[in-house]
Task: inverse folding
């Protein structure tokens, strides 16, 4: 049986990685925009981003635009590969179930 990555498999983290995977490899998204796209509370999004960051799947960059703090989020190279592996594993599971 194919094992699905437990870090990505949680519904909220899957939504986050899927959203970030739509960006180009060199792009990032501002935290409030990601929060708006996913319709998540700031606390919930932060918690799941921390798990993804601890796994090396996302890069969180805190900076300033003038005097205003801004947080940008991007999928790391490792995270992009993990998401691709996850989707391949999911296809394998769904394909295997379709054969029974």
Result:
């Amino acid at each position: 049986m194919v094992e699905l990555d437990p870090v990505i498999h949680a519904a909220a983290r899957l939504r986050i990685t899927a959203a970030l995977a739509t960006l180009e490899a060199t792009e990032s998204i501002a935290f409030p925009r990601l929060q708006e796209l996913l319709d998540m509370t700031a606390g919930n999004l932060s918690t799941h981003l921390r798990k993804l960051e601890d796994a090396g799947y996302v890069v969180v960059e805190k900076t300033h635009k003038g005097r205003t703090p801004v947080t940008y989020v991007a999928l790391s190279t490792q995270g992009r590969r993990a998401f691709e592996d996850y989707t391949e594993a999911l296809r394998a599971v769904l394909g295997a179930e379709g054969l029974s």
In short: The two ends are 14 Å apart (CA to CA). The chain has five helices and three strands. The first strand starts at residue 29 and ends at 30. The longest helix spans residues 77-99.
